[in-house]
Amino acid sequence: MALFRKAEKLCGGEGKESMHVATYNAVIHGLLINGQAADAEAIPDVYTYTTIFDTLLQSNRPDAVMRMLDVMETAKIPANTATYTAIIDCLIRRKGEKNVRAALQLANKMEADGIPANEVTFTSLLAGVSRDDELPAMVQKQLVAEIMAKMTARGMEPNRVTQTFLLLAALKADSKTGIDQAMQIWREAIAEKGNPGHIPHPTYFILLTGLAKNERYDHVQEVMEYIYRSGWQPKGPLEKLIKQLSMEIALRG
């Protein structure tokens, strides 16, 4: 907070509501470049840098990623997987194609610099893309494929968490291709372990809800019959959903 107070004082806006975030960021940026972060009695964290990054993106700067990294280097912020992943996660949570692509660009830059992205990095990217309602379905599909290609190239297999986000992205496509892709992900997941309990309740909930929304009751029946045959007993919201869908299918004849 001391860093922000110093920025506020230098802007002559202490206590005023008219101070704009871009003004703060410009002064904070200047303090960092001039090595005055220590004088301000504060060490900037990932949120500080993400805010500055956001301002650079809002200004439509094509060099936003490089400028951000320059600021971090000047402030002697350690360039490691954890730092990059934290900034990527903060950035991608802000939604919008511009932020998502900037996060991917940052991931590419860290790997180009010999800093390996890990499963946490890729899961964060997948989660952000899958949950982003502002992204067009085709863009979302393209970005998911790009992230998965990077994971595959590094020998990383989708875990239970990434499978959930892949399902979510596929079902959001609202197309036959998306539905087929979601079913393929599910079939591969159960073939791997042969046990429906291996897949988390939320994943089944997302899958069945998405299939029902698209009126693909043939696939709904396939999933539910597999669960029944296995003897696995769902609990809570998933159990209620299965009962509801069973009634809907019965009414449809």
From TrEMBL:
Pfam families linked: PPR, PPR_2, PPR_3
UniProt superkingdom: Eukaryota
UniProt PPR repeat ranges: 45-79, 80-117
Membership in a protein family: Belongs to the PPR family. P subfamily.
Protein name per Swiss-Prot or TrEMBL: Pentacotripeptide-repeat region of PRORP domain-containing protein
Species of the source: Tulasnella calospora MUT 4182
